[in-house]
Amino acid sequence: MQAIIFDFNGTLFSDTDLHEKAWRQFLRGVLQRDLAADEFDQIHGRSNHLIMENLLGKKLTKAEGQQYSEQKEMIYRQLILENKRFDLIAGAKDFFGQLKNSQIPINIATAAPKSNVDFYFELFQLQQWFDLDKIVFNDGQLASKPAPDYYQKAALNIGADPKQMVVFEDSPIGIQGAANAKARKIIAVATNNNHEILQNNAYVDLVIDDFTDPGLQVLL
């Protein structure tokens, strides 16, 4: 193992419900319709541009995609503040500290846009453990998950071989992307009572409910 790469939303920060609320509010405002239950599965882990095209049923220019994306993300960030979601998933910060003490390089590979990444750094003081300049986010240049690009770049940015990284993910699309990157190990973080479902995923080596799981000590 040369590095640990974390997804962010749903993996380090429990915000799935807030994203879904934000998408609902956005769609009501733009299309005057609600988000169908089966559409949720197509949201998590993908880039906003792809999601927007799927939901709107048409191709978008880069500028159009960015405009729609920022509308939705402004709603989402406001929901975080209104709901006072100011904590990462249990044990995450202590785990970062342990990894730092063990001199294990870590990075984040997220489909979130830069505006959200900046917001997370300020809200959670992530600069204590992560280098903002090394974070991989959705800048429109990389293929969306489940392509391997996000994870591979996140590892290379901190001098690690992508095939020797451990990836933490929560969504099936993200897990598939980590597998496509040929990560050495994939650890799934359970959300929405899907622990058993994730255990049945052939790509997953370990499922945790949070970062207090004693099984993580083997990484140290």
Write structural notes for this entry.
By secondary structure, this protein is an alpha/beta fold. The chain folds into 2 domains: 3-13 and 86-219, HAD superfamily/HAD-like (Rossmann fold, 3-Layer(aba) Sandwich), CATH 3.40.50.1000; 16-82, Putative phosphatase, domain 2 (DNA polymerase, domain 1). The chain is 40% helix and 9% strand. The protein is built from 8 helices and 5 strands, in the order E-H-H-H-H-E-H-H-E-H-E-H-E. It has helices spanning 16-30, 48-56, 62-82, 92-101, 114-124, 149-157, 172-180, 195-199, and strands spanning 3-6, 106-108, 165-169, 185-189, 206-208. A 5-stranded parallel sheet has the order 2-1-3-4-5, with helices on both faces. Helix 7 links the parallel strand 3 and strand 4. Helix 1 (16-30) packs across helix 3 and helix 2 (48-56) crosses helix 3 (62-82). It is globular, with a radius of gyration of 17 Å. The protein starts with a strand and ends in a 12-residue tail after the last strand. The mean pLDDT is 92.
Quick take:
Helix content is 40%, strand content 9%. With 220 residues, it is α/β, with parallel strands linked by helices.
In CATH, the topology of the largest domain is named Rossmann fold
Quote the distance from N terminus to C terminus: 10 Å
How many domains?
2
What is the CATH domain class of the largest domain?
A: Alpha Beta
Identify the CATH architecture of the largest domain: 3-Layer(aba) Sandwich
Q: Could you tell me the number of beta strands?
A: 5
Instruction: Give the SSE order as H and E letters.
Output: EHHHHEHHEHEHE
**Percentage of residues assigned to helices:** 40-55%
- Main sheet properties: 5 strands, parallel
CATH superfamily of the largest domain: HAD superfamily/HAD-like
Global outline:
globular
Query: Unreliable stretches, pLDDT < 50, 5 or more residues?
Result: none
Backbone CA Rg? 17 Å
